[in-house]
């Protein structure tokens, strides 16, 4: 009985959120935050990952980990994704004029966006529209994208590479993390998930695996980013293992646009 009750509640909540997502799109209510990434081997700013944020007057902050999957299922992710792309490129171009920063802006892309036929065109158009150097754009993709129709996804990824944008494989270490993905996909960067590096300082086998993974990625001419680094111990360890880049609360939390601009202005990034 309880089970049915909870299931109903779940579905109800889902429907409420789905409706609120549609309203939020209409009201232009989403906001982008930016989390710095550091090239900690060279001790310099690498760029930002753009992360969507949603504050609802009734519900408060709603995590993208909750609403993005709902938007993916309802199809609203297409519109949200295009808004994210334009908003982030507009901001990055604006910063470039103001601060002349070097670096990359990383944008999360859902499977549903990537499999839409005109995604490559959209990226092409946005790059021209906002006058961004394509090499400064990095698209973050998770392996869930490759479950269906691998061939056509690979061809889309190759078209994106031809435009000149970079590709990174997000959340490596959470799903299948198959070595096949590393072999077959034209990725530039591999993001090692937080869950993967959480216990590297305590678990020797995990540390060895991470060390070997970083070496393997380097042999494939890709670079690594460690995600979700929270402690000095993890930071030191990853540096020692020659991980290329770091992103996490230890070096900087996601921040609103104004705060991110201050960081660029003051060049206080190492
Ligand atoms: P992700 O792409 O793997 O993003 C990294 C997540 O880890 C972010 O959560 C970030 O705030 C969090 N994080 C970073 N450093 C730390 C740390 O040191 N400790 C902890 N505990 N967390 C850390 P966030 O912003 O809640 O986003 C969750 C997920 O939602 C993202 O995971 C991504 O899959 C999705 N997402 C966020 N923004 C977008 C977007 O614009 N478009 C799409 N399609 N998905 C998005
Ligand atoms: Mg990401
Ligand atoms: Mg991730
Ligand atoms: Mg994720």
UniProtKB/TrEMBL annotation:
Pfam families, per database record: EAL
Residue ranges of domain EAL in the record: 14-268
PROSITE patterns the UniProt entry points to: EAL
Signal peptide range: none
Alphabetized GO MF terms: cyclic-guanylate-specific phosphodiesterase activity
InterPro entries found in the cross-reference section: Cyclic-di-GMP_PDE-like, EAL_dom, EAL_sf
Cited Gene3D superfamilies: EAL domain (3.20.20.450)
Protein name: EAL domain-containing protein
Organism of origin: Lachnotalea glycerini
Origin organism lineage: Bacteria, Bacillati, Bacillota, Clostridia, Lachnospirales
């Amino acid at each position: 009985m309880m089970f049915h009750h909870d299931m109903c509640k779940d579905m109800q909540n889902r429907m409420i959120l789905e409706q609120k997502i549609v309203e939020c799109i209409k009201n232009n209510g989403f906001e982008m935050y930016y989390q710095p990434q550091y090239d900690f081997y060279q001790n310099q700013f690498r760029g930002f990952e753009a992360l969507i944020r949603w504050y609802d007057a009734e519900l408060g902050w709603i995590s993208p980990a909750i609403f993005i999957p709902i938007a993916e299922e309802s199809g609203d992710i297409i519109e949200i994704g295009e808004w994210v792309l334009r908003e982030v490129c507009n901001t990055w171009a604006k910063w470039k004029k103001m601060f002349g920063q070097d670096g990359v802006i990383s944008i999360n892309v859902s499977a549903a966006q990537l499999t839409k036929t005109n995604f490559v065109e959209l990226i092409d158009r946005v790059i021209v529209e906002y006058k961004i150097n394509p090499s400064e754009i990095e698209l973050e993709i998770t392996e869930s994208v490759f479950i269906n129709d691998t061939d056509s996804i690979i061809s889309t990824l190759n078209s994106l590479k031809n435009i000149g944008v970079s590709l990174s494989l997000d959340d490596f270490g959470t799903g299948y993390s198959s070595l096949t993905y590393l072999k077959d996909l034209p990725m530039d960067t591999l993001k090692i998930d937080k869950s993967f590096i959480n216990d590297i300082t305590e678990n020797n086998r995990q540390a060895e695996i991470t060390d070997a993974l970083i070496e393997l990625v380097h042999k494939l001419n890709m670079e690594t980013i460690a995600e979700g680094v929270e402690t000095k111990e993890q930071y030191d360890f990853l540096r020692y293992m020659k991980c290329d880049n770091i992103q996490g609360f230890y070096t900087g939390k996601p921040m609103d646009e104004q705060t991110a601009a201050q960081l660029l202005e003051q060049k206080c990034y190492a």
